[in-house]
Design brief:
Elements: E1 2-7, E2 13-19, E3 23-30, H1 33-36, H2 44-66, E4 75-81, H3 85-102, E5 106-110, H4 111-117, E6 129-134, E7 139-146, E8 149-155, H5 161-172, H6 178-186, H7 211-223, H8 231-257, E9 261-265, H9 272-284, E10 288-291, H10 294-297, H11 301-313
Parallel strand pairs: 1-4, 4-5, 6-9, 9-10
Antiparallel strand pairs: 1-2, 2-3, 6-7, 7-8
Length: 331
């Protein structure tokens, strides 16, 4: 059984081919980082226009890499949201056209669910589990009971964690994407150099807020001298504050609900310091924690194909007029 996975939720154009739900035959991701670097963040119109240029080329290339023809595909999984709506619609429209031309079903996939389920490309994780999806566009905690059976426990009320990192990097003129740059610079720093606030860490909920942390960081930079000697310490302290909140709330959800399994997905899950914090704290609380390989943390078509495979074998396909959406659909 061959499933084609397509993801164009933001600024990465990705196609993947998955066989029998387990064997990844090909996974291509075309990044637009160089296009958006000059702006310090993703420009939605530029992103959607670039998807238009790339989708046909990448489709042909992924089939070539998998040594298959279009006639070998049984179904198409495509991100239908949430994401930048212009980008989402580019992938969705291409998938619909391909569905009609090949006479095969289309399956709309929730991008957040795909990030949470990407772990199943590499590990057999028992249901239920607590999932933290953290990226430039999303910071959200879910209880996952099975494919399509999940409950949102909490989400960010303002900036996503990755978004806050990008904005700090832009403010300091460090470049884009900010998360990767801050991670590298923080490796040489002391995480206890400055104690930045941990917004909402003690609140009786699982929601996040990173706007206040971002503002505290900017105010500190304006008030105190920042130079090449202390910038790594300051960035490390900022990163530590954000990750302290992410780990604290996710572990609290797991313990309060009584589910000793945590999955962390999304682009920020590639960060080595975040992984170390989760592994250390989960070990103390005897909670299993799972991280995908970095290539499956960032946006990719393989995770979409994985979810689509399950829905296809359980006869849960989508109508050809399936609509795209920009915000998370709450269950």
């Amino acid at each position: 059984m061959i499933i084609l996975g397509i993801d164009t939720s933001c600024d990465d154009t990705s196609f993947a081919v998955l066989r029998n739900g387990r064997e990844l035959l090909a996974n291509l991701v075309s990044s637009q980082i160089d296009l958006h670097r000059v702006f310090g963040g993703v420009v939605p119109e530029i992103a959607s226009r670039k998807h238009v240029e790339l989708v046909d080329q990448l489709y042909r290339e992924v089939l070539q890499n998998a040594n298959l023809s279009g006639k070998s595909i049984q179904a198409i999984g495509v991100t239908s949201g949430p994401g930048l709506i212009g980008s989402v619609l580019m992938g969705l429209c291409f998938a619909k056209g391909l569905s009609l031309s090949l006479g095969i079903p289309i399956i709309g996939v929730n991008h957040i669910e795909a990030h949470a389920m990407s772990i199943l490309l590499e590990y057999d994780v028992e249901f239920p589990f607590i999932a933290l999806v953290v990226s430039g566009g999303h910071t959200i905690i879910l209880r996952i009971d099975d494919f399509g059976l999940y409950k949102v426990l909490g989400s960010t009320r303002d900036d996503a964690a990755g978004e806050a990192f990008d904005k700090i990097a832009k403010f300091l003129g460090l470049g884009y994407p900010g998360g990767r740059i801050i991670e590298e610079m923080s490796k040489e720093g002391k995480p206890d150099h400055v104690f930045f606030p941990r917004p909402m860490i003690d609140d009786n909920n699982y929601d996040f807020s990173f706007s206040g942390l971002k503002t505290a960081m900017i105010n500190y930079i304006k008030k105190y001298n920042v130079n090449n000697e202390n910038i790594s310490d300051i960035l490390s302290s900022f990163q530590e504050a954000a990750f302290d909140v992410l780990a604290n709330k996710t572990l609290r959800a797991a313990k309060n609900i009584g589910i000793p399994r945590i999955v962390v997905g999304g682009g920020v899950a590639s960060n080595g310091r975040l992984r170390a914090i989760f592994h250390e704290r989960c070990s103390k609380d005897r909670i299993d924690v799972f991280f995908s390989s970095p290539e499956f943390c960032t946006d990719n078509g393989a995770m979409v194909a994985k979810v689509a495979h399950h829905y296809y074998v359980t006869n849960k396909t989508s109508p050809i007029d399936i609509a795209g959406y920009s915000r998370m659909k709450f269950h």
